């Protein structure tokens, strides 16, 4: 059986801030601390047996796969709702630079393209 390492596990093993700018260092530190005691949290307690279990907060960083997994799933469901029962093709092309101003004024057109 092959075990899959998480990004957090990989960072815990290989993170080296040397050579990274401050922004990347900060993101790595958030990802390392996500859902650990370092982020703080609360203690959940069973009302029947008094069993307690810590629940640590997420980092909510946009790069974090643990925190953004739910948002990504919800986005995918919204996209699925818009799919028509036809064959799709993915097309990528570059607009002429003369249209840059128009695209900036109409961001909804870019997102729906
Ligand atoms: Zn996180």
Question: In a few lines, what is going on in this structure?
Answer:
The chain has 113 residues and is mainly alpha-helical.
What value does the average pLDDT take? 89
Cα(first) to Cα(last) distance is: 42 Å
**Main beta sheet strand tally, sense and closure:** 2 strands, antiparallel
What is the strand content? 5-15%
Number of strands: 2
| Shape type | extended
Task: Catalogue the unreliable spans.
Answer: none
Number of H- or I-type helical stretches: 5
The proportion of residues forming helix, as a percent range, comes to: 40-55%
Rg over CA atoms: 21 Å
SSE order, one letter for each helix or strand: HHEEHHH
The ligands bound in this entry are: zinc ion
Describe the structure.
- The protein has a two-stranded antiparallel sheet with strand order 1-2.
- It has 5 helices and 2 strands.
- A hairpin with a 6-residue loop joins strand 1 (41-45) and strand 2 (52-56).
- It has 113 residues and is mostly helical.
- The relative contact order is 0.09.
- It has one domain.
- Helix 1 (7-14) packs across helix 2.
Can you lay out the helices and strands and say which pair or pack?
Blueprint: H1 7-14, H2 22-33, E1 41-45, E2 52-56, H3 65-81, H4 100-105, H5 107-111
Helix pairs in contact: 1-2
From the structure above, extract its key features:
two-stranded antiparallel sheet, 113 residues, extended, binds zinc ion, 5 helices, single chain, mainly alpha, 2 strands
């Amino acid at each position: 059986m092959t075990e899959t390492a998480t990004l957090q596990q990989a960072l815990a093993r290989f993170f080296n801030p040397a050579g990274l700018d401050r922004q990347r260092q900060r993101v790595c530190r958030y990802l390392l601390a996500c859902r650990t005691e370092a982020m703080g949290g609360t203690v959940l307690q069973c009302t029947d047996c008094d069993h307690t279990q810590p629940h640590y907060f997420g980092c909510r960083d946009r790069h974090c796969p643990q925190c953004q997994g739910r948002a990504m799933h919800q986005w995918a469901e919204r996209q699925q709702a818009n799919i028509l029962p036809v064959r799709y093709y993915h097309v990528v092309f570059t607009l002429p630079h003369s249209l840059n101003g128009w695209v900036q004024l109409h961001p909804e057109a870019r997102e729906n393209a």
